[in-house]
Write a structure and sequence with these properties.
Layout: E1 8-14, E2 17-18, E3 24-25, E4 28-32, E5 40-43, E6 46-49, H1 61-79, H2 84-95, E7 99-100, E8 104-106, E9 109-115, E10 123-128, E11 135-138, H3 140-143, E12 149-156, E13 162-169, E14 175-181, E15 186-195, E16 201-203, E17 206-211, E18 229-234, E19 243-246, E20 255-260, E21 266-272, E22 278-284, H4 285-288, E23 298-301, E24 308-314, E25 319-324, E26 332-336, E27 347-350, E28 356-363, E29 366-373, E30 376-383, E31 390-392, E32 399-402, E33 411-417, E34 424-429, E35 435-439, E36 450-458, E37 464-472, E38 483-486, H5 503-507, E39 512-516, H6 526-530, H7 538-553, E40 562-567, H8 569-580, E41 587-591, H9 610-613, H10 620-629, E42 643-649, H11 658-670, E43 677-682, H12 693-711, H13 722-726
Parallel strand pairs: 38-39, 38-40, 40-41, 41-42, 42-43
Antiparallel strand pairs: 1-4, 2-3, 5-6, 7-9, 8-9, 9-10, 10-11, 12-13, 13-14, 14-15, 16-17, 17-18, 18-19, 20-21, 21-22, 22-23, 24-25, 25-26, 26-27, 28-29, 29-30, 30-31, 32-33, 33-34, 34-35, 36-37, 37-39
Helix pairs in contact: 2-12
C-alpha cells in the first residue's frame, strides 16, 4: 500500500503560547492529514479541488485512525484547561433537577416522561387516571446501560388499545418501530426496520408509516436516502407482508408521510421535495377503504411552492380545517369541503394577521391558534367556526405549545418555557379557560436574578432585525463581558425563547447571551424565510455579522470576549461568518454543520435541503452563489482564524460528519494565527436528539471550557456546593 495514505509526521503549528488571560497554553500538534491532489470535481468548466474527500468514507480504517488522532489532540488541549473539571462539576449541579413532561392522554391512561436529574434518558411512566400511581412503561436506562438508545411514543390506536413506539440507537435517525398492548402492558412481536422521519397513523387494526429500502451494509450512515414509501402494517404481520400504499418510482428525492383523521374518516398524504413547500392529498377511507399505489388521491395542494396542511376534520360540518400560506405569507386557517377542494371554494375561518400564525391545534371542540409576535408566543382560542376569540394569558414572555386533545376531551395540557424557565407544564380546562400548574421544576439558581430584553438593530442593507439579550440584572456594558451569540437562520424555523441549562454556565458568571431572529427563519412569516434562501442566503450571514457588530458597538462585549455558536444549518452559519469575518469573533463553535455546500445533496437526507440552498450541479448560477459562501471553499491559507472548536458525532446521519472532517482539516492547514482550531468528535452519538445525559455533560463542559479559555476568562466557583444548595428555588 502506498505510504502516502498514512498520516505524515505531525505538524507543530503552535508552540507554548500565552493564553488570552496571560497563562500558558499547551502546545498543539495537529495531525498532518493526507491530501489527495486528484480528488475534486469539474463544475461548469471550473475544477474544484477536494483533497480531503477520502474522509467521506466514514467506515474506513484510515478515517477511524484520523478521528482517533484528532480527538486525542483536542482532549489533550481540553485537559490542560485548569477550570475544565470545575465547569463539569458545576454543570452537573445545574443539570441535576427533576424533569417531568406534560402528560400524553390515551383513554384513561396518562404517559409521562421523567428524569430524576442525571439519568441518561427519560423514563416513560404510565398512570391510570391523572391522579394515579406512576408505573414504569419503558426505562431506556435499564434496556441500554450505555444510555445511547432512546424510545418515543409514536401514537396510540384510535381505540386506545395499542401504542406504537419508536426506537433510535446511537443518535442515528434510523427508527425501529415496535407495538405495545396497553391492556396488558406487554410488547407484541411486531418489529419494523429502516424507518426514518415517520410517525404511526392508525387505521383499523394497523397503521400507516414511511420507510426506505434497506441500505447496503456499511453505508447505513452515509448513503443518500432515496425512494421513501408509505406502507400499511397490520398488527401481527411480519414486515415483509406490509401493504405498499404509495410510491413514486421516477423521483427518489421525495419525503412522504401519511396521516389519519381522528375518526378514521380520511387518510392524508404529505409529499415534499425537501424542507420547503409540500403537496397535500387526502383519501376518503369511508368509501375507498385502504389505499393502494393505484389510488387516485384527491389533491388539496399540488406543487411545492406553498405550505398547506390539514389541521382537523369536523364531523358536524363534514369539512376540513386547513392551515395555509396561500395568499397569506403569515398564514391563515380556512375551511375546505372535501367534495370541492379548489381554492376558489375555500372559506376563511381565521384570517391572516400582521403576526405569524405558526400553528393551530384542536381539542374539546375548540381551536388553539399559536401566534408569534416579535418571536414570542401568543395563544388565542376560537370556536371551530373562528368565532368567540379569546387570548390565553401566558405566565410571561416566552414560548408555549400544546393545548390540543381529542374532540370529546374536557381538558388538555400545554408547556411554557423562557430563557430562565426550563419548562413548566399546565393543565388547561376547556370549559372554564382556567390554567393550573401540573409540574414546575425546582432549580439550582434564582431566575429573578436575570432579565431578558429585546432590541432591534440594522443589518447591512438596512433591514431591522430583532435580537434577544439575556444577562444578570446587575450586568454592566463594560465592553468586555463574556458573550455568546447564537442563531440559526434557515428552513422557516423560528428561534423563540427557550431554556438551556448549559447557558447558565455563562449567565451566572456575569456573561451575556444574544439570540437574533435572522432572515431565513420563520419568525416573521414566509417572506422573512424567503429573504434568506438560495441566492439570498448571504442576507442571513450579514444579519449575524451585524448582530456581532451591534453587541460590540453597544459595549456589551468586544471581539476577544465574543463567542459564536450554532448547530446544523446554524453550523453552516458559523462556518460562513468565520471565513468571511475572521477578525470579528474571538471563538467560533460550529456544531454538526453543513460546511461543504457543493456536495451536501449527495449524502443521507441532503436532497431535502436543495429547496432551501440550491444545488451546485443544477446551474452555473446556483454553483456560483453556493461556492461564494461555502465554508469549506472559503478558507484561505495564511489567514489568522479565531479559536475554533468544530463539534460533530460519528453517528450523525443527518449532516454527515464528513462536512466537519474536511472543514477542520482545511482550517488546520490554513491557520496562520496562534489560536487553536480543533475538532471534537463524539462517538455513539448523532445529530443531537436523544444524546445521553453523561455525554451532554461532558460535551458542554468541553465546549464552555474551550470558550472561556480562549476568551481569556476564568470562571469563579464556590469551594463547595453549599451556596448552590442554599439558593434552590
Amino acid at each position: 500500500m502506498d505510504k502516502r495514505i498514512f498520516f505524515a509526521a505531525a505538524i507543530l503549528v503552535a508552540c507554548d503560547q500565552a493564553a488570552p488571560d496571560g497563562s500558558t497554553m499547551t502546545a498543539i500538534t495537529y495531525p498532518a492529514t493526507r491530501q489527495d491532489p486528484a480528488a475534486g470535481d469539474s463544475l461548469f468548466g471550473e475544477w474544484v479541488a477536494d483533497p480531503y474527500r477520502w474522509l467521506e468514507n466514514d467506515t474506513s480504517a484510515e478515517t477511524a485512525a484520523w478521528v482517533k488522532q484528532e480527538n486525542a489532540v483536542t482532549q489533550d488541549f481540553l485537559k490542560g484547561i485548569p477550570f475544565r473539571d470545575a465547569i463539569e462539576e458545576r454543570y452537573s449541579e445545574l443539570f441535576n433537577f427533576p424533569k417531568v413532561s406534560a402528560p400524553t392522554k390515551v383513554g384513561d391512561l396518562y404517559f409521562i416522561h421523567k428524569n430524576t436529574g442525571l439519568q441518561n434518558q427519560f423514563v416513560i411512566y404510565v398512570r391510570q387516571g391523572l391522579e394515579g400511581e406512576d408505573k414504569v412503561f419503558i426505562d431506556p436506562n435499564a434496556i441500554d446501560p450505555n444510555g445511547t438508545t432512546t424510545f418515543d411514543l409514536l401514537g396510540a390506536s384510535n381505540d386506545d388499545r395499542y401504542m406504537a413506539v419508536s426506537i433510535n440507537k446511537a443518535g442515528s435517525d434510523w427508527q425501529e418501530i415496535e407495538v405495545w398492548d396497553l391492556s396488558t402492558m406487554t410488547k407484541l412481536g411486531d418489529h419494523l426496520n429502516w424507518c426514518k422521519f415517520t410517525g404511526a397513523a392508525w387505521y383499523r387494526d394497523g397503521f400507516f408509516y414511511s420507510r426506505y429500502p434497506e441500505p447496503a451494509k456499511g453505508t447505513e450512515l452515509s448513503t443518500a436516502n432515496k425512494f421513501q414509501k408509505v406502507y400499511y402494517h397490520k398488527l401481527g404481520d411480519p414486515q415483509e407482508k406490509d401493504v405498499l400504499v404509495w410510491e413514486n418510482k421516477e423521483n427518489g428525492d421525495l419525503y412522504v408521510g401519511a396521516g389519519v383523521t381522528e375518526g378514521e374518516e380520511f387518510a392524508t398524504l404529505y409529499v415534499s421535495t425537501g424542507t420547503d413547500g409540500f403537496e397535500m392529498y387526502y383519501h376518503d377511507l369511508r368509501k375507498g377503504g385502504l389505499p393502494t399505489p393505484a389510488t387516485k388521491w384527491v389533491a388539496l395542494q399540488q406543487g411545492f411552492e406553498h405550505k398547506t396542511s390539514i389541521v382537523d376534520f369536523v364531523p358536524t360540518t363534514g369539512h376540513f380545517l386547513v392551515l395555509t400560506e396561500v395568499d397569506a405569507p403569515n398564514y391563515r386557517l380556512v375551511e375546505v369541503d372535501p367534495a370541492k377542494p379548489a381554492q376558489k371554494d375555500w372559506r376563511e375561518v381565521i384570517p391572516q394577521r400582521s403576526e405569524l400564525l405558526q400553528g393551530v391545534n384542536s381539542g374539546g371542540g375548540l381551536l388553539f391558534a399559536s401566534y408569534l409576535k416579535n418571536a414570542t408566543t401568543r395563544i388565542r382560542r376560537f370556536k371551530l367556526d373562528g368565532s368567540d376569540e379569546q387570548e390565553i394569558q401566558l405566565p410571561d414572555i416566552g414560548s408555549a405549545g400544546g393545548f390540543g386533545g381529542k374532540r370529546d376531551a374536557t381538558f388538555g395540557f400545554y408547556g411554557f418555557t423562557s430563557f430562565t424557565d426550563p419548562g413548566t407544564s399546565y393543565k388547561y380546562d376547556y370549559a372554564t379557560g382556567e390554567s393550573e400548574v401540573f409540574y414546575r421544576p425546582k432549580l439550582m439558581f434564582d431566575p429573578n436574578d436575570y432579565m431578558t430584553e429585546q432590541v432591534t438593530y440594522a443589518s447591512n442593507d438596512g433591514t431591522q432585525v430583532p435580537m434577544f439579550i439575556v444577562h444578570r440584572k446587575d450586568a454592566q456594558k463594560n465592553g468586555r463581558n463574556p458573550t455568546l451569540l447564537y442563531a440559526y437562520g434557515g428552513f422557516n424555523i423560528s428561534l423563540t425563547p427557550s431554556f438551556s441549562t448549559s447557558r447558565m454556565l455563562l449567565l451566572e458568571q456575569g456573561g451575556v447571551y444574544a439570540q437574533p431572529s435572522l432572515r431565513g427563519g420563520g419568525e416573521f412569516g414566509e417572506e422573512w424565510h424567503k429573504a434568506g434562501m438560495k441566492e439570498k442566503k448571504q442576507n442571513v450571514f450579514d444579519d449575524f455579522i451585524s448582530a456581532a457588530e451591534y453587541l460590540i458597538g453597544e459595549k456589551w462585549t468586544d471581539t476577544p470576549h465574543l463567542a459564536v455558536n450554532g448547530g446544523s444549518n446554524g453550523g453552516l452559519l458559523i462556518g460562513a461568518v468565520e471565513t468571511q469575518r475572521p477578525d470579528l469573533f474571538g471563538v467560533c463553535v460550529p456544531e454538526v454543520g453543513v460546511l461543504d455546500m457543493l456536495r451536501f445533496q449527495k449524502f443521507t437526507a441532503g436532497f431535502g435541503w436543495v429547496p432551501e440552498y440550491g444545488n451546485a450541479e443544477n446551474s452555473k448560477e446556483e454553483y456560483a452563489y453556493l461556492k461564494a459562501y461555502s465554508p469549506l471553499h472559503n478558507i484561505h491559507p495564511g489567514t489568522k482564524y479565531p479559536a475554533t472548536l468544530v463539534m460533530t458525532a460519528d453517528h450523525d446521519d443527518r449532516v454527515v460528519p464528513a462536512h466537519s472532517f474536511k472543514f477542520i482539516s482545511t482550517l488546520q492547514a490554513a491557520q496562520a494565527g496562534p489560536a487553536p482550531v480543533l475538532i471534537r468528535i463524539e462517538t455513539q452519538a448523532g445529530h443531537g436528539a436523544g444524546k445521553p445525559t453523561a455525554k451532554i455533560i461532558e460535551e458542554q463542559a468541553d465546549k464552555w471550557a474551550f470558550i472561556f479559555r480562549n476568551m481569556g476568562f476564568t470562571p469563579q466557583y464556590p469551594d463547595s456546593t453549599s451556596e448552590a444548595q442554599a439558593s434552590m428555588h
